[in-house]
Amino acid sequence: MTFRTPAFGRRLGNGRSRLLVPVLVVLAVLLVAFLLFTSIWTNLLWYRSINFSSVYTTELWAKALLFVGSGALMALLVGANMVIAYRLRPAYRPLSVEQQGLERYRAVVDPRRKLIAGGLLGLLALLTGSSVAGQWPVFLAFLNRTPFGVEDPQFHKDVSFYVFTYPFLRLVLGVVFATVILSILAALMVHYLYGGLRLQGPGDKASPPARAHLSVLVGLFVLLKAFAYWFDRYGLVHSERGATTGASYTDVNALLPAKTILAVIAVVCALMFFGNLLQRGMMLPGVGFTLLVLSAVLVGGVYPLLIQQFQVKPDELAKELEYIKRNIEFTRKAYNVEGATVTGEYGAKPVTDPKQLQTEAERLGGVRLLDPNVVGETFQQLQRIRPFYQFPDTLDVDRYKVGNETVDAIVALRELSGAPEGQQSWVKDRMVYTHGYGFVSAYGDRFGPGGTPDFLSKDMPQSPDSKIKVDRPQIYFGERSPDYSVVGGSGQQELDYPDNSKAGQKNTTYQGRGGVPVDSFLNKLLFATKFQEKNLLLSGAINDGAKIVYNRKPREMVQKAAPWLTLDGDPYPTVVNGRITWILDGYTTSSGYPYSEQTSLGDATRDTITDTRSAVARQTNDRINYMRNSVKATVDAYDGTVKLYQWDEKDPVAKTWMKVFKGTVQPRGSIPPELESHFRYPQDLFKVQRQILTKYHVTDASAFYNGEGFWEVPEDPGAKGRRQPPYYQSLQMPGKDAASFSLTTVYNPRGNPNLAAFMAIGSTPGRDYGQIQILQLPRNATAQGPGQVQNSFETDPKVKNELFALRQGGTRTVPGNMLTIPFGDGILYVEPMYAMAAGTAEQQPYPLLGRVLVRFGDKIASGSTMSEAMEQLLGGVAAAPPAGEKPPEQEQPGQEPGGAPLSAQAQQAIDNLEAAVTDFEKAQKDGNFAEMGKAWDRVKKARDELAAAQKAAAAARPAATPSPSPSATPSPTPGG
Q1: Residues 6 or more apart whose Cβ sits within 8 Å of residue 37
Q2: Do both 238 and 197 map to the same domain?
Q3: Does 221 lie in the same domain as 100?
Q4: Residue 669 Cα distances to 37, 648, 702, 766, angstroms
């Protein structure tokens, strides 16, 4: 008994150890399966919440099909060749040192060969399937391809072949090549391990079965190479060999026939390898391999090089002229700039007649001086209200109808930044502080007292005199929304906005359709796992009707709903029928358009805004040569409803994806007019087009080859080393009857700071939308560019003194957007100059308008308003001020226009105005935003009373000489 007990214990211990390993493996598999299920199911629930579940399931099925299909193909073919090699092993192996060494490996491998082979093939299938599954867009686009109706001039194939078919065939060819190569390597390894191949010893190095097997595999590889040579001919339409992108003279006359010859040679070489099945020896394979290598070097490499060096380079323009024309034509089509109109010699004879300039000034209207890239901090300080709200650094530009007038507006949302510092807890962060509140906007062309924005809509709750009414001000889906929040439960109190009542805050309960129910144990468990947060499972505050909202950022939501789109980096908020709605522009892109110049999407769209501001997303550095704004997308800020609308109805890429994801994109005719009125031409597409037009405005092939007249996008005068961004503004282009909302930019000659051209594109949906108009200045003129104009502002004696006065006491100036405006057959430059007082981070100074700088021709002027600046510029000829902006004060206090004594009503209005301005300045100094708003309302009321009194006095004196009304608006106070 005493001797058998240890043995029994050892056997028990060994048995437990043997049992423990399978249990751990099973538990690991179950854990991985649960995590995989959690990821897939929670994603599916989110897609269902926005009614786009078909997008997710279609993508999953495509990935699964490619994963299983490619992985199985790889494993089966490689495994079959390993089995064949094993069965063709020699029965007897000659004795040698090499074989004695291999015998040790065979002794280890042979008993476990099925397990080892199965593991290796499984890993190979997993890697192959994962790689190919990521190419599901190529697969689905090929199956649903749509013709472009445009043929390439070389092979006369529809462009869809290069955009959809060619990438898919390259994918298939790559998988088959990899399968054959890995089969060869696997067969070599097995043949060597089991003696079919020898590296040492006398006699044949390969057994006849091994030689036959490998000859067939190498023959298949060479046959595939023949197909690749033939197929590569079509890739010449993307060649970079010549002066421009596309098949060049050398490609067409040397490389194209060379590829055909190489394909034929490869077929012959493949037959030589197959012939080795009938003839023992390595002569035929050796001859075939040598022929293949020599022909590839001589025919595919040396011959085209000789043609390029000795035929093309001595006479390159004549040889490449036809192919340059192809490149120009197809590039302009691919980027949709073929309709751009160029007006030459603009600005050769600017208007000098004062009367005509006065007419031009009166038509100038309101110039958008409020810079959305500067006044974000001003919005933050004046309208944040509480520190747990925030505005973006870069605001947006839109248009709204105020009365009978459509005005440019700077808009932003008051989004949530989180619970107050020191007050964070899971319940507060996820169930109380759940959403932002309020839409804030200001006139783009006018300012309030002290250089502050003149708000169209403001405050929380919304001010009664707001011009833009919002019925649903809550923002549950925004650019700065938390990762997830739990909302909508019975009795749940979510902070809506702070107020002055005894309770101190207004609460709300989410009632939108968005979000996923989280009131069941299973969903709580799944989301607790997804977000790694145990409180989602344990919290008793999550009750009936509760939902979890996640994936809340508009750009992220639309990208998931339409994974085939590239999205603009700047979503912008609008108010449509009383609801806050995000608008996003979606692009279809391709790198397969023949003869089209490739560009980096990231480089083309990079400028001051994307380099310095977090609110605008940077594009990736994808190389593209085709781009369309095919889809306009919207996201409801309250309930997260996502809608996709077809915008470019001719785009074949969008039509292809609409076949793949049927019913997800609504037709253009279903766009509500109220929504369409807020659509604008997207910035990223415009940036790519302006980059292309730096060269491709030149349509003459000879001039293009010589680089004659090429342009470049200028440096931003306010940010050295960064490109100037395009600007939205309403302006009247030469030849147009009225002003329209446009996106504008300027060009310099390449390597020259002077101004070369001005470009604008219609941004209001309608007849002019998307029409590019370029005003090209005379090439022999020396019109100053933005950088030079900025320097002239800083060095002009009068302006320099005024800016110096602004900068006293530590105040610094911040230049706003330098707007370029066609005016009087010349160019008018307008730059608002903001002043920001000195202060610490705790004091939080913010920019206020200090001066407006203008330049026309050689004349420079500065004023506190646009109308004042234009009056000084034109020598007494003032621009018509925008509605709401009063001309600068010109009469003496105590007098009506014309010198008559003030009436009692007018004097009382002036007293009220002075008192209101004093109260405003005091409240501004104290940082009391509520009192500032009240005082500003009194300023406007007193101003209206004064205007009414003056009108009554003028009616009583019909013979009086009319003159401008005195301005009641206080002068800008730098720094507040």
Answers
A1: none
A2: no
A3: no
A4: 40, 12, 44, 13
Length of the chain, in residues: 976
Domain boundary, last residue among 174, 205, 236: 205
Q: Check whether residue 660 and residue 562 sit in a common domain.
A: yes
Whether residues 164 and 177 share a domain: the answer is yes
For residue 813, report the phi and psi dihedrals to the nearest 5 degrees: -100, 145
Q: Kindly report the backbone phi and psi dihedral angles of residue 647, in degrees, each rounded to the nearest multiple of 5, phi listed first.
A: -110, -50
- For the chain, the first-to-last Cα distance in angstroms comes to 99
Q: Which of 368, 508, 366, 337 is nearest to 434 (CA)?
A: 508
> What is the full DSSP assignment across 914-940?
HHHHHHHHHHHHHT-HHHHHHHHHHHH
Say whether 250 sits in a helix, a strand or coil: helix
- Is residue 566 within 8 A of residue 587, CB to CB? The reply is yes
Q: Are residues 260 and 388 in the same domain?
A: no
SS3 546: coil
Task: Count CB-CB contacts under 10 A for residue 837.
Answer: 17
CA-closest candidate to residue 592, choices 141, 70, 63:
141
Helix axes 53-87, 208-232, angle to 10 degrees: 140
Is residue 132 included in any domain, yes or no?
Answer: yes
Q: What is the structure's pLDDT at 6?
A: 47
Question: Could you give the CA distance from residue 384 to residue 246 in angstroms, rounded to a whole number?
Answer: 54
What is the band of 955 on the pLDDT scale with cuts at 50, 70, 90?
low
Quote the CA–CA distance of 317 and 550 in Å, as a whole number.
Answer: 58
The reply to whether 174 and 66 lie within a common domain is yes
Q: Is residue 739 part of a domain?
A: no
Domain end marker among 679, 696, 721:
679
Distance of alpha carbon 139 from the chain centroid: 24
Q: Which residue has the tokens 């060649």?
A: 239
**pLDDT one-digit tens code per residue, 752-791:** 999 999 999 999 998 899 999 999 999 887 889 999 999 9
pLDDT category of residue 429 using cuts at 50, 70 and 90: very high
Residue in the block written with tokens 């390898």: 273
Q: How many CB atoms lie within 10 A of CB 807?
A: 15
Q: 375: how many CB neighbours lie within 10 A of its CB?
A: 27
Question: Model pTM?
Answer: 0.86
| Amino acid letter for position 247 | A
* Secondary structure class of 203 (helix, strand, coil): coil
Per-residue pLDDT reduced to its tens digit, 197-226: 777 666 577 788 888 899 899 999 999 999
Structure tokens at 715: 């440096």
Secondary structure element (H or E) that encloses residue 175, with its range: helix 166-193
Whether 886 maps to a domain, the answer reads no
Helix (H, G, I), strand (E, B) or coil at 400: strand
Burial 776-795 (b: 16+ CB within 10 A, else e): bbeeeeebbbbbbbbebbee
pLDDT of residue 972: 37
Fill in the amino acid letter for 253. Answer: N
Note whether 312 and 235 are same-domain residues: yes
d(CA 657, CA 139) in angstroms, rounded, equals 12
- Residues 88, 128: one domain? yes
Contacting residues for 463 by C-beta, under 8 A, at least 6 apart: 455, 457, 933
**In whole angstroms, how far apart are CA 567 and each of 411, 585, 601, 607, 614?**
20, 6, 12, 17, 16
Domain of residue 924, residue span:
904-956
